[in-house]
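REQUEST ID: PR-0412
SUBMITTED BY: lab tech R.K.
PRIORITY: routine
TASK: structure prediction, single protein chain
INPUT:
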Amino acid sequence: RPGFRFPQWHTGDMFFVYPGYDGRPVRTLRTEMLLAGIQDFELITMAREQAAGDTAIAEALDWAFARVIRAENLADFADVDHTPPEKLYSLDPADYAAARAEIIAALTK
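STATUS: complete
OUTPUT:
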């Protein structure tokens, strides 16, 4: 029942999948973004492990983070009520795709 607890919870607030027309599960955008975040975490972890002995990978990581993170330091995230999101991180999906591609390219060289 997608309307469970409506109006307190809007439709989709608790779902990672929806029933498809044939009864099979259909993943939501929330699920797709969660999976992308997990993949990015694994990719960054692999790159960090290899960056100690490879300056190209370390530089790729620095470039990738600079492409998506706008904040000067982590403390900037403590005042999110007064700091617009675009001053903390990129809102452009192309920046995230480019960062991911840069790290993958450095790892596969």
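NOTES: The chain has three helices and two strands.
REVIEWED BY: pending
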